[in-house]
Amino acid sequence: MRRGDLAPDFTLPDQAGVARTLSTLVHDGPVVLFFYPAAMTRGCTKESCHFRDLGARFTALGAQRVGISMDDVARQSQFAARYDLDYPLLADVGGVVARAYGVKRPVDLLRVRRSTFVIYRDRRVRDVITAEFNMDRHAEHALAVLGEDQTPLS
Q1: Confidence of residue 136 (pLDDT cuts 50, 70, 90)
Q2: Which residues are 115's β-sheet partners?
Q3: Domains of the chain, with CATH numbers?
Q4: How many Å is the Cα radius of gyration of the chain?
Q5: How many C-beta atoms surround the C-beta of residue 95 within 10 A?
Q6: Does 44 qualify as catalytic in the annotation?
Q7: Which of 22, 26, 44, 73 is catalytic?
């Protein structure tokens, strides 16, 4: 997936088991969809908490944060509760969505490449952030894209 591509639509359960569909989510504004390898791991916890801590800034820009990993609903629920994560965490257990976005690793040990997609209402990808070891870069870069983009949020 690259800038300008149409983001693949999908429906996955969140940490409460509620089905979330990308084409529905984008009706409320841009979606910052971030893939992380595994809930409750050190790096993924740091990244997810950074997205949590910057929540007011995303809200001010009309954007939604959505995390996604190959963990099941129960694990996502435990992760959200333990770290007070205030946004949907989607369970892509089979890695179908990760494959569609090109972030699924061939070996399941690390599952997915840490990647973030800024997706606007037209489901076009405005930017892609990839940084395996800089956990803060994803949220900060997404905020920069959202804040600097002067084109209408279509």
Answers
A1: confident
A2: 35, 130
A3: 11-148 (3.40.30.10)
A4: 14
A5: 16
A6: yes
A7: 44
